[in-house]
């Protein structure tokens, strides 16, 4: 086990930022930590990194205490909005991080190439875009193939192409056995890229499961969107006892076990109906279901 | 050790890019040249070579300038990293806080040494060009050099402490300027006022010498002027402090850098990014 959290609690005065949070991340596993702003994601990461202590509970990073030499040697971190000294070039900054890790500075260019920064390596970081700074941040996190990678909203500021490249690199690391914990506030972004999802809501862990299981557990209603014949929307809505959306569309919401029966009702209307679309609950629906406490 | 050097190297690079090295060297050279020019008039003091006179003038200059340069370089060291958001990342690296701060300290002290060497070097060349006897003042100049470095080390350490305490560069800048005014300018004026009010009483005899030794800048001045040949050039408070044994001033000069860097480390240890 690369990371084990148990009953982790953090309070600032009377405000409980984290309330008995506990989960594991195994080697090679990619876990997404989701939550609104202020849900406690960054605080939890800082505790894992040993930057701040937890008030209660226990944390084990690579079998050692957070912030210990073992934990820090094997852990890499990418902070939210990675920042660097603007006067240094990307290459100089990376050489600095390599030296701090006791690694050879000859790795600087290969690492910068890996994140697609080879052409900008000799320019000052002050001239970089936010996405480029984020890539420098990723490059430093890749030094020496860490055993645990902690990424705080790593893809904010990246364009869709860069995001895809970013996740490809993460997949390679996970395949080599790196445990990855990354935070995000968009479930859509992490859906296909992570093995498990942990959702924090106001410091409470409300979900810790695979996306498929979360979808099942949420059992959110399905929406049926019916296009009625011109001018017949009212009639269709009345016959199905549903709400009309506009001149031609009728919205129907049902549980997943009612779906077939409702489709039967719709097809019985015959020529009144032009078309039917079945809209399953979106990832955002599932996320808000859990983050509002629906899974607790 | 390698990690201290890594941190020092990067810090030196940054100072070079940010023109801090240029500014510090230019300041020291400019002021030294002005002093040399001002001191080129006949001194009237018999048996005193030109360089020794220059050293006396440089001492008065260094008391103001060395702490100022040291504080200006150091106030941003920790507060700036907190503000930029670079500290939280570097603290997750397998490097101790002591190593990080020692790295910065090494770089800043090296820059100060370069600036001081350039300034004093120019003044020394000017003095030697005008007076062949000036070679006799070289030991005094060397003593001024290494005590200046120790004085700078003290104020770099204090600057780090204030930087970590303030956590914001703006607040840190205000604190270091305030500290400079109090320790370098107002402190002596306050002591002088107290002596005048005391009129040779218990304060003047018992407390005043210790208060003078407790201030690193005053200790620096006392030591350099007391052991140099040009005590005639000593003015103000130092004249009044002639009775203080130079060895006590030397101890103060040696102890202060250790105290200051320890304070810096203790304050930095408490910083949570």
TrEMBL record, chain A:
InterPro entries: AAA+_ATPase, ABC_transporter-like_ATP-bd, ABC_transporter-like_CS, ABC_Transporter_VariousFunc, P-loop_NTPase. Gene3D superfamilies: P-loop containing nucleotide triphosphate hydrolases. The keyword Transcription regulation does not apply. Residues 3-227 form the ABC transporter domain. The keyword Repressor does not apply. Keywords: ATP-binding, Nucleotide-binding, Transport. One of its GO terms (molecular function) is ATP hydrolysis activity. This is ABC transporter ATP-binding protein. It comes from Thalassospira xianhensis MCCC 1A02616.
TrEMBL record, chain B:
GO terms for molecular function: ABC-type transporter activity. The keyword Zinc does not apply. Keywords: Membrane, Transmembrane, Transmembrane helix. GO terms for cellular component: plasma membrane. It comes from the Bacteria. The chain crosses the membrane at residues 20-41, 61-80, 101-128, 140-162, 174-197, 247-268. This is Membrane protein. It comes from Thalassospira xianhensis MCCC 1A02616.
